[in-house]
Design a protein that fits this description.
mainly alpha; about 0% strand
């Protein structure tokens, strides 16, 4: 395996630090996790998205104002 360095600005470095699951996790592992998250969705997630889209098209949803009113925030 060839190891190389990349340059990132301080803001990105701080964001990568926040995303570490544990102190000794490498930045390479953090970056791979981010990439893998974008590659594929689990079958369960895909089914949930499809169900949500179907329910939205059928009008089975509540607006934020409706929810606020129902829980007494408005």
């Amino acid at each position: 395996m060839v190891i190389t360095s990349i340059q990132v600005d301080v803001e990105l470095l701080e964001e990568l630090k926040k995303r570490k699951m544990y102190e000794r996790e490498s930045y390479a592992d953090v970056i791979w996790d981010l990439i893998e998250d974008r590659w594929e969705l689990s079958e369960e997630t895909v089914k949930g998205i499809e169900r949500s889209r179907r329910e939205f098209k059928e009008g089975k949803y509540h607006t934020l104002d409706e929810v606020r009113k129902k829980i007494g925030l408005k």
